Amino acid sequence: MPELPQMKNRGRWDIFCTVVDNFGDIGVTWRLARQLVAEHAVDVRLWVDDLRAFERLCPEIEIHAPQQWQQGVEVRQWAAEWQPVEAADVVIAAFACQLPSPYMDAMAARETPPLWMNLDYLSAEDWVIGCHGLPSVKYKSVQKFFFFPGFQKGTGGLLRETGLLERRRQFQQNPEARREFLQGLGIDPAPAAQLISLFAYENTGLASWLDTLAADSAPTHLLVPEGRILGDVERWLGINGLVAGALHVREALTVQVLPFIRQDQYDHLLWCCDFNAVRGEDSFVRAQWAGRPLLWHIYQQEENIHLDKLEAFLALYTKGLSAPAAEAISGLWRAWNAGQDIADQWLATRKHWPELQKHAEAWCLEQALQADLAAALVQFYVNWI
């Protein structure tokens, strides 16, 4: 993508976010809003309907404030009783959320209609390239456009802040920085232990994985940020009420519960680990930028259509791997997303560890050749005006 033209200000942008799955939607829109402000001279209003969920990502949020500024972003409470405001120059409906009717009327009332985009869910499916940037529905004089994040040329790319990979590289090459970060979270792994992060939805296949890790000849330190998978961890341990700071050892496996941490801290956690189990969209993308092998727990959808997305990504991700390594990592992902016993798939994956490590870094660098999502959105706006 050519360098964006210099503009003193690229207008006011409104980003609308309805919190559907606790943190995924707000996680993506919060990253995007901050990057637009910091890197593209954009004035952003972020409209959020659940500030309590937002508070977990940004503890400074005042959950009852109708209007506040956080890290340069104007955060507005998307209340049921909508108060009239002037529509922005660019309007982003994140993940197909429905805009308030009075706001849509305000868009139509502008002398110059705004650019209205539906920022859709991330997918590697082939049809995304054909639909990206196309007109969608129209409301009076205002045309909406599809905007798809993606992994291939012809899509909107992935969220990636300027300099992210260089900061990651410097961190991963600095053992002291890694040690200090882990100590700050109360993590003191054994010198030879592999470090694994686990952030996932509920999964009946977890017990088989933990059994395998516990029986391994090599030690594993499993880091579990507070979240939905914690109930399954409790059942495996045979205890109730796991909270942040809890630490339990069973044979070769140490399980440690971490508090829900800020996005930047979570990035560093991913960078520290040898393997990252992630879920949804935001943590999935950040694990790819970590350049380490990963396991994705995709968000389940009706009629199992999410499995098509899983297969589409695997088809892309495993290119360049040897056939045995591709079969092993694909089998692990499929079994995990089906809630099946993954012991055999994990052991098969471990046989190809050096190749998978090298491939994870190569995939990261390949994706970084594309324009990032924020830059692609700004370019779309520049082209539109």
TrEMBL record:
The molecular function terms in GO held by this entry are: translation elongation factor activity
> Is the keyword Secreted assigned to this protein?
no
Work out whether the entry's keyword set contains Transferase: yes
Q: What is the catalytic activity of this protein?
A: dTDP-beta-L-rhamnose + L-arginyl-[protein] = N(omega)-(alpha-L-rhamnosyl)-L-arginyl-[protein] + dTDP + H(+)
Q: Name one Pfam family in it.
A: EarP
Task: Could you list this entry's UniProt keywords, alphabetically sorted.
Answer: Elongation factor, Glycosyltransferase, Protein biosynthesis, Transferase
Q: Which InterPro entries match?
A: EarP (IPR016633)
Quote the function comment for this protein: Protein-arginine rhamnosyltransferase that catalyzes the transfer of a single rhamnose to elongation factor P (EF-P) on 'Lys-32', a modification required for EF-P-dependent rescue of polyproline stalled ribosomes.
Q: So what family is this one in?
A: Belongs to the glycosyltransferase 104 family.
The molecule here is called Protein-arginine rhamnosyltransferase
Q: Which organism is it from?
A: Pseudomonas nunensis
Q: What is the lineage of its organism?
A: Bacteria, Pseudomonadati, Pseudomonadota, Gammaproteobacteria, Pseudomonadales
- Gene for this protein? earP
